[in-house]
Amino acid sequence: MSNKELEKNEVFVRTFGCQMNVRDSEIISGLLRAAGYKIALTDKEAKIIIFNTCAVRQHAEDRVWSLIGSYKGTKIIGLVGCMAQNYQERAFDRDASVSFVIGPQDIHKLPEVLSKITHHSLLERKVWETQGSIRPEEIYRTGFHQDQAHTQIVISEGCSNFCSYCVVPYVRGPLRHRKFQSIIEEIRSALDSGISRITLLGQNVNAYQDGDLDFTKLLKAVNALNGLEELGFFTSHPKDVHLEFFKAINELDKLTKTLHLPVQSGADRILKLMNRGYTRKDYLAKVTSYRKIVEGGTLTTDIIVGFPTESKDEFEETKALISEVGFNGAYIFKYSPRPNTQASKIVPVILEKEIQKRHLEILNLQRAISNKLKHKHAKK
Ligand code: SAH
Ligand code: SF4
After folding, report:
1. CATH code where residue 273 lies
2. Is residue 134 part of a domain?
3. How many distinct structural domains can be found in the chain?
4. Which atom of ligand 1 is nearest the CA belonging to 167?
5. pLDDT tens, 310-331?
6. Please, which of 23, 68, 269, 295 could form a disulfide with 152 given CB 3.0 to 4.6 Å?
7. Are residues 270 and 222 part of one domain?
8. 167 lines ligand 2 (CB under 6 A)
9. Which listed ligand is nearest to 274 at the C-alpha?
10. 56 in ligand 2 pocket by Cβ < 6 Å?
11. Which residue from 333, 345, 356 has its CB within 8 A of the most atoms of ligand 1, so it is best to mutate?
């Protein structure tokens, strides 16, 4: 197939995982559109399928392998994102129909990689790019937005927290902050194009720093922009949230009064093993402070059940914390061992059957709390 012919072909980008990946898929689409490819809305007409993937839990990876298998070699398949970084060239052994593998720090090379594949007209040719460590700033300037009313803006890439269960620092690299001015410029141009709602994105937005400019200052600067109607952010880390930040949430008129503050566990020994950098008491104190300052603010969280060595009592402590705080919503995850992580070396692990039991218990508990809060809210 010649280059010209392939460029006429459509590319379908399928996204898995977090909001960061949703934004990365827009960047991928923008880069490919600029290189002359058409972005397909479904996989039917597309010759090339790009899987922009997640590696946070094994389950997410299994789903992608099964979907890749379902194409039975009828498409050109690209594995992109966190799972690509996790597998690197081993992806070609895992499924021979994969033609290219590109890690999150290398997505700007996508047009070049596709052109390589076509130039050589060797579909069996395998190309992989997983050595990158920085993303060029230009990738944020493609102007591609899936939704004409809302977009997400990346403020920092990677993470250096090394929570012991988490693969993110290994696949997305260390924390890098984008320049304050570049972020503002990207938001300005999104607002100029008619977008009115913005979500600021980072693995830990509260760690944002550019010289003496921190996250609270960024929120204030963005809130002041003309044309902006609503501002949100995702995700906050309990060890880095503080009073000034809560005050900003309360005061800034465009900011949504909601906070996602993943606690992961309610037991101090487990929090320590997780390397989270706070205790149960620290967490509860921050919640109290948030609720005092941000009137009517909602609160959501993430929980991991069945972390290696988690005892029944420690599990009960997590349940008690959930009841005590009364989260408006929570994502409850079953612990999944990830390559390279410290937690994957901890024994004994909790048996799958027990993890499932604990998972269901917390799901039911949280469902009851969420419903009660919704009901209370509706009554007001
Ligand atoms: N940077 C964000 C998001 C990290 S991934 C944060 O720190 O909150 C999103 C959620 O996935 C985490 O909060 C955690 O609850 C869950 N998670 C991460 N690694 C996991 C693993 N190995 N097993 C189960 N859940 C995991
Ligand atoms: Fe993973 Fe922890 Fe970083 Fe979140 S803060 S991405 S859980 S290492």
Report:
1. 3.30.750.200
2. no
3. 3
4. 19
5. 999 999 999 999 999 999 999 9
6. 23
7. no
8. no
9. 2
10. no
11. 333
3-state secondary structure the chain: CCHHHHHHCEEEEEECCCHHHHHHHHHHHHHHHHCCCEECCCCCCEEEEEEEECCCCHHHHHHHHHHHHHCCCCCEEEEEEHHHHHHCCHHHHHCCCEEEEECHHHHHHHHHHHHHHHHCCCCCCCEEECCCCCCCHHHHHCCCCCCCCEEEEECEECCCCCCCCCCHHHHHCCCEECCHHHHHHHHHHHHHCCCCEEEEECCCHHHCEECCEEHHHHHHHHHCCCCCCEEEEECCCHHHCCHHHHHHHHHCCCECCEEECCCECCCHHHHHHCCCCCCHHHHHHHHHHHHHHCCCCEEEEEEEECCCCCCHHHHHHHHHHHHHHCCCEEEEEECCCCCCCCHHHCCCCCCHHHHHHHHHHHHHHHHHHHHHHHHHHHHC
- Give the distance (Å) from ligand 2 centre to CA of residue 172: 11
End residue of a domain, out of 227, 255, 283: 255
Q: Domain ends where: 255, 278, 298?
A: 255
Structural domain that includes position 124? 3-129
- Whether residue 24 is contained in a domain is answered as yes
- Give per-residue pLDDT as tens, 144-183: 998 999 999 999 999 999 999 999 999 999 999 999 999 9
